[in-house]
Design goal:
The protein is an alpha/beta fold and 668 residues long. It is 32% helix and 18% strand. It has 3 domains: 9-370, TIM Barrel; 381-474 and 624-667, Rossmann fold; 477-621, FAD/NAD(P)-binding domain (3-Layer(bba) Sandwich), CATH 3.50.50. The strands form 7 sheets. The chain has an 8-stranded parallel β-barrel with strand order 3-4-5-8-9-10-11-12, surrounded by 7 helices. Strands 15-14-13-16-27 form a 5-stranded parallel sheet, with helices on both faces. A 5-stranded parallel sheet has the order 18-25-19-20-21. Helix 13 packs parallel to helix 15 (429-443) and helix 13 packs parallel to helix 22. It binds NADP nicotinamide-adenine-dinucleotide phosphate and iron/sulfur cluster.
């Protein structure tokens, strides 16, 4: 997949939505930021969105704000329901408009998806992803809820928003009214689809009336439900027409309820996989339709608009990864975009664990005020040793401040562990990220020296004013009898292709890398690029699930008791666990490693001995910091900045590595 496309003209052309003309077709879609319930920090939110507006986003949609107390997502005040809240929101809209952007407020009633004790829904049916049973809404409460949407829409206009988006997908309250799965009412709000649709259509009409003509009324419609008892394609098309007739100016596509067990935005989802669902909507209405989900490359976005699948393209995470996404497309620098790798580690996983979102590949996201853009007062000569992501981030930030930066990497190419991660099924975008980032380093003037290390002579001569040590980690060796057997290999040897794994593999270690390597080996090195058809068949979209055939017999083993995968990402770990299950990967916890001999790996579990026969034993037992250079320099009294895995290998993760690199590089 390429980062570039010959013709972006359709994507960059203006479009009229309601009474508003948008400069281009690229929408920064709604995403919870974790700051919606913190009005005291709306300046941060304003700066965050303004950076995206300045970077050319045609339209920005805020994270969801509840129209009333019962509709909030969590047990915190993320509502917009009172006039005294208007001034705080002006601290969001003001900076966005000053940057030349357009922004609409998303109104989201969580219904039974709220994580608080007072949840409500059309019927008292518990969601599989929530422990509480919702209270059934009464007739009066339904009418009051409809009125609350209109009230929030009026407040949004008072606060300067260019309109609102009604969240009607992903399984929230409106979805809950629409689906027979969650709406068992026998009054006028339940029964056949026309009755179940009464609530959303009443909301749209009320909001339209509150907005008047002019401001944008976007309706996020569930184009594909991906659950039992949801709307089918024909019902969705009917609903789209009704929403249009009720007064919506555009339809934004939503894919899948949150309780669906099919991935919708993770890296395993092929690019633009859900475009056919958007196309069906487009055929059902005359108003503009927005495509979304796993569109992170400008070429895909341009194709969807040019071929008429969608009028606009919504991306949320790619705008976290690169606020200048549109500006780069417009100025022929699409191949310099910082590509979102769909890891969810700093965005969704942060939100789900009660933290403010950020971005793994863009440490500046939501920290805009903490970074300095001005050229440094004095130009320094800086050596960065280690071209993994920590070193790359440090080099880019330092070079952008005007320093003379040399990035040393011992391997033949920069990228460190990301280069290996790019081999894992579902992590192919890591490679695209490296391509775009490398070009940014070159543009910033960083001297990239691969296959080279900074010499002691150069440091002794004083060639550099500052040294940043980003030498990363060394994989931990296995310390058991027979650990030096030739069948015992490190994960780096497997992933870089220097060792060919046999038919029976034992993976030692149950961390993220152990899981990734087990998947890589079970899937086979020659598995080919993921296809939309293969993804749909595997996950059972439009039919029964079809598990892949495993290429090897893989057994994972770890010493600690308890289930595998507890350290995996909250929003993606379940997918990895399911994939491994599909491949028939066996997982053995609570093992004591005894020895390795001709028969294989001898272990003991609960006092019972077992031999795991293996042609290859891959060690994924964590890492130790690669600190020798740092230690040497510190011993000589030289001041060094040690970042990433070289500083702390335990809990090493790329998010911390890039953040540390960016902060150190920017501060010099
Ligand atoms: P890790 O998560 O720390 O896991 C290391 C594994 O090695 C543990 O499961 C541990 O299991 C085992 N281990 C530790 N010391 C050992 C020893 N002396 N002998 C044998 N086994 C030992 O490290 P990682 O898997 O290398 O991942 C590194 C970082 O990358 C993690 O922080 C992770 O966040 C990140 N990462 C995440 C993902 C993902 O989420 N998909 C993928 C790749 C990397 P026992 O102690 O139970 O044996
Ligand atoms: Fe994309 Fe990962 Fe950044 Fe989220 S944290 S925006 S998924 S790169």
């Amino acid at each position: 997949m390429s980062l570039v496309n010959r013709d972006f003209s359709a994507l960059l052309s203006p479009i009229r939505v309601g009474g508003v003309t948008l400069a281009n077709r690229l929408v920064m879609g709604s995403m919870h930021t974790g700051l919606e319930s913190h009005p005291e920090r709306y300046d941060t939110l304003g700066r965050f969105y303004a950076a995206r507006a300045k970077g050319g986003a045609g339209l920005i949609v805020t994270g969801g704000f509840a129209p009333c107390h019962a509709g909030r997502m969590r047990d915190e005040p993320a509502t917009f329901e009172r006039p005294d809240q208007v001034a705080a929101h002006q601290r969001i809209t003001g900076p966005v408009h000053a940057a030349g952007g357009r922004i609409i407020l998303q109104i989201l009633h969580a219904g039974r998806y709220g994580y608080h004790p007072a949840i409500v829904a059309p019927s008292p049916i518990k969601s599989p992803i929530n422990r509480d049973v919702p209270v059934e809404l009464t007739e009066d409460a339904i009418l009051a809820t409809i009125a609350s949407y209109a009230n929030t829409a009026r407040l949004a206009i008072a606060a300067g928003y260019d309109g609102v988006e009604v969240m009607g997908s992903e399984g929230y309250l409106i979805s809950q009214f629409l689906a027979a799965r969650t709406n068992h009412r026998t009054d006028r709000w339940g029964g056949p689809l026309a009755a179940r649709a009464r609530f959303p259509l009443a909301v749209v009409r009320a909001v339209r009336e509150a907005l008047g003509e002019g401001p944008i009324l976007s309706y996020r419609i569930s184009a594909l439900e991906l659950i039992e008892g949801g709307l089918d394609d024909a019902e969705t098309a009917w609903l789209a027409g009704q929403v249009e007739a009720a007064g919506a100016d555009c339809l934004a596509t939503g894919i899948g309820w949150h309780e669906a067990t099919i991935p919708t935005i993770a890296g395993v989802v092929p690019h633009a996989a859900f475009a056919p669902a958007t196309r069906r909507l487009k055929e059902a209405v005359a108003i503009p339709v927005t495509a979304s989900n796993r569109i992170n490359l400008p070429a895909d976005a341009a194709r969807l608009v040019a071929e008429g699948t969608a009028d606009l393209v919504s991306m949320a995470r790619p705008f976290l990864a690169d606020p200048d996404f549109v500006a780069k497309v417009r100025t022929n620098r699409a191949d310099r975009i910082t590509v979102c790798i769909a890891c969810n580690q700093a965005c969704l996983d942060h939100y789900f664990t009660g933290q403010v979102i950020g971005c793994l590949v863009n440490p500046r996201a939501m920290r805009e005020a903490e970074f300095i853009d001005a050229t440094a007062a004095s130009r320094k000569r800086i050596a960065v040793t280690g071209g993994g992501v920590a070193g790359m981030a440090a080099a880019l930030e330092a070079a952008r401040r005007g320093h003379d930066v040399t990035l040393y990497e011992a391997a033949a190419e920069i990228g460190g562990q990301f280069r290996q991660a790019a081999k894992i099924p579902g992590k192919e975008d890591y490679g695209l990220f490296l391509t775009g980032y490398r070009r940014q380093l070159e543009d910033a003037g960083v001297q990239i020296r691969t296959g080279a290390a900074v010499t002691m002579e150069a440091l002794a001569r004083g060639d550099y004013d500052e040294v940043i040590v980003a030498s990363g980690v060394v994989p931990r060796a296995l310390d058991i009898p027979g650990g030096d057997d030739p069948r015992v290999v490190g994960y780096t040897q497997v992933l870089d292709g220097s060792v060919a794994a046999g038919a029976r593999v034992v993976v030692i270690g149950g961390g993220g890398i152990g899981h990734d390597v087990a998947l890589y080996l079970a899937a086979g090195e020659d598995r080919g690029a993921p296809t939309v058809a293969g993804f749909a068949a595997h996950w059972g979209i439009g039919g029964a699930r079809r598990p892949h055939a495993a290429r090897r017999r893989v057994t994972m083993v770890k010493r600690s008791p308890g289930p595998f995968g507890r350290t995996l990402g909250k929003s993606t770990g379940w997918i990895l666990r399911q994939e491994l299950k599909d491949y028939g990967v066996r997982q053995v916890a609570g093992a004591r490693y005894l020895k390795i001999d001709a028969a294989g790996l001898h272990i003991e579990v609960d006092g019972k001995a077992e031999v795991l026969a293996a042609d290859t034993i891959v060690v994924c037992a964590g890492q130790e910091p690669a600190r020798s250079l740092a230690d040497l320099l510190e011993a000589r009294g030289q001041s060094v900045h040690v970042i990433g895995g070289a500083r702390l290998a335990g809990e090493l993760d790329a998010k911390r590595a890039m953040l540390e690199g960016a902060v150190v590089g920017n501060a010099l």
